[in-house]
């Protein structure tokens, strides 16, 4: 018997589609039948750069803007994000573009301030089993993007989602972002099989983050395409105007030009798969 | 510096395309710009069943027939294949359909008898580092399909190919078939990132075997599509008329109906990717 | 260059020995030259059982009592510990036996209440990269036992320790508790090589938890002995009067009789290795 | 139900002890209650060096001499061993010291020539699932040392042993030599838990190879000690007079001085564990 309940297809056979209210007016939908594009830099680094990029991405048809404010970094000596001041920049980008925004929450004590500005709260892979955090998120009426832990099994991942859903918040989006294996060429190994498996086991939507999954920008496009062909409901892609100078994750970030090329091909694929690539009306 | 030489894109920038002479007349090509379909049962089980399936697959447009004769089995008590008598069946299927055939070689002492009948010799994942065998294959003028070892790194895999190529045989086709990870839901974890990585590092063609990579027939179609979207040059798929009664690997085998559905979708994808799905004129 | 600094042997060549003030009067030392035994049940389940076991373990010469109050459980439907009421039981056991106590902290909001009663705060493997928590622990003047994450590299583990030490708290004890691999027979694979590696790279003490590392009580004794022979500074062992009825982790818990047998053998080994097995004067 | 039969403790509860006839007269025993030491260089490199080292090791009380003749190398461009000419050197060392010798067999076609000179035939980790080879070895009346594959589960390893035993050769010694994990600091991760697990599941003896398992000579001694404390029946250690100039595996080889220090400590541990460290009467 499967240990997860409320997230399973046995509990609810109809695929869950999550509506993200866009400040610009139109909802963005994440779920079966749609292909949703989330993009932005790894971290919000400066007001000027973030706003410029946000407008660019809006014009390319991106549906949701990402940007890290509180960054979980392996070393205590790495850049950890702008925190509160970055949140103000994000709020401005949200207002200018009319697009919903997503950022990671690492600490239950940050929830209040993030709740008011952010449209989707992200749980990073290192916190997938931070159960205190998951329980708090279960109390909120806000969509949660739950990244798979670096070495989490499919079952543990769905049980982490169960923590949120059983707490009362059904708006959970799963995000495959690569698992840890023996292979040293790539930062992680993207588990593309997770896409059809999750579709079979759960009614929750699943998207793929090919940037973190590979750690190499050259691989982002083929993996993004593979994700959509395998049935993913969307993508989360890191984009930076000047990847070589990014304060974090530059090697896996696409330039806007490369992102645009990726997006064109993804759109053609999504159409072949009968997925609606949402028109962003923001 | 990379430890592999002759298989690298530095050594030869032009993608290698391998011509498989078909007994029916037309060559089958495996390599960049083509999408080649290899299909058949895990093991040749009986003359009647194999010939019936071979003709079915020919009519569906499959380019190469597979079928195991000498099966590497984890347990000494499992069905190990028909051996020599299976080879006669395979030769008959080859003659009737005009299609090239591929089977696995496990033992250097079987090379002579296989050489005369078989069009492509397969090295299984358990023998990827059987260097005595690789050295013998380097002496042959016959295409070799080299499966990735269960826990082989990309580098070790390319070095295994280097054994064959440096011996004088440049006709090596790489085949990703899943790696071993901590995830228990699937038999293996398909490393879809291997496709763009190999394309970047090597001029050799790469195909994907989604049947062994997942071990679950329900996952074969999405993973096959993902492979083509990621840039793979072809697929190897297990098909069986009655998977529940297969003597090996039934759980991962498609019925001919399901295979036909997969192939249709793969063809549409391949066309989107500007890959020629070879017409089989055999 | 190594990315960790203050925890490295380059920064401080003298091994760090951590003094745990025992309520009964004598300090317990964890570090090079000592073999420290931490034991107790996975979770504090009832006052009667915990106090009885605590006295038993005191008489067997255990130096520190363990017991879970806030349990991180993979499923939201599992027993999550007694929380605050368990803390009162632990305080009583501490007072009766005179032994220091250790329990896991999962949430920064629990720190205040735990700080007053508990002698060592444990960071569980799921929270090894919960950087908000690590930063808070860096502010405290209380020893921290930092378990290795399930798939954390040695480097990531030492960087997690660096978070605490660079924050101002140098009293960090590392605890190897098994890593995730492909092997299904055991819950985890104990990385015994981590013991000599940590000794080479860092001045911090390292102990081993063979109960979680194996998940099978039959393996606890041989692995405990291997840990001491490899140079570990101590052990953390799960003991339960009635493992079959334990509310969590029964399969990996030793009966007091089996624990006593283990401890005798460990003491002989520790003496051979010139490690002082502390006399508990509590 | 367990898939292996003849190697299991259900089939035969009495531990198997394997007698290796020593050319010098006294048998060497490998099995429960004994601690057997196998040592020598990774590869036989020259007559002078090998004979000198062999005599040194004999005087230190080593029971069996190792030395690679046919080396499985990841790259086709690495030193592959002296082959037949190395065998003559090994035969001379065997004759001079009176000690049994062990070397790896990679190819069924080498069996005849090796059979006459060598006392134990080793199957390397890359060939653990080379079933053609295993089947041939099952026909011989010669002890076989079967190394665990790099990513072989305990079950697959025992099934590989079952191939040999079910073929008629019951003289199989298992050798744990490290498994592949995500950890990059060490070449492999020694699975120390394999020792008690094999003791529980099988009657066959198990030894540990800490040299290959770690890839670092500094770790060989602590891991060797851990292996004996965990219950291993012996050790296989790489020793080289000048590790920096070794043609293969220099980084993991001990100098004779360091080996001597290791052996002293192992002997003390073995005595504590009531294992007889065989007197070498050769």
Describe this structure in words.
Four copies of one chain form a homotetramer. In chain A, 35% of the residues lie in helices and 15% in strands. Chain A has 282 residues and is an alpha/beta fold. In chain A, strands 3, 4, 5, 6, 7, 8, 9, 10 and 11 form a nine-stranded parallel beta sheet that branches. A two-stranded antiparallel sheet of chain A has the order 1-2. The radius of gyration of chain A is 17 Å and the shape is globular. Chain A starts with 17 loop residues before the first strand and ends in a 5-residue tail after the last strand. The mean pLDDT of chain A is 94. At the A-B interface, helix 6, helix 8 and helix 9 of A face helix 6, helix 8 and helix 9 of B.
Kindly summarize this structure in a few lines.
Four copies of one chain form a homotetramer. Chain A contains nine helices and eleven strands.
Task: Provide the gyration radius of chain A in Å.
Answer: 17 Å
CATH architecture of chain A: Alpha-Beta Barrel
Inertia-based shape of chain A: globular
Question: End-to-end span of chain A in angstroms?
Answer: 45 Å
- Name the chain pair with the biggest interface and residue counts per chain: A-B, 36 and 36 residues
DSSP summary: helix tally of chain A: 9
Which class do the helix and strand fractions of chain A yield?
A: alpha/beta
User: Please, how many domains of chain A?
Assistant: 1
- Characterize the biggest β-sheet of chain A: 9 strands, parallel
- Going by CATH, the homologous superfamily of chain A would be Aldolase class I
Named CATH topology of chain A:
TIM Barrel
Beta-strand content bin of chain A: 15-25%
Number of strands of chain A: 11
Overall CATH class of chain A:
Alpha Beta
On the 0 to 100 scale, the average pLDDT of chain A is 94
Task: Classify the oligomer.
Answer: homotetramer
**Helix/strand order of chain A:** EEEHEHEHEHEHEHEHHEHE
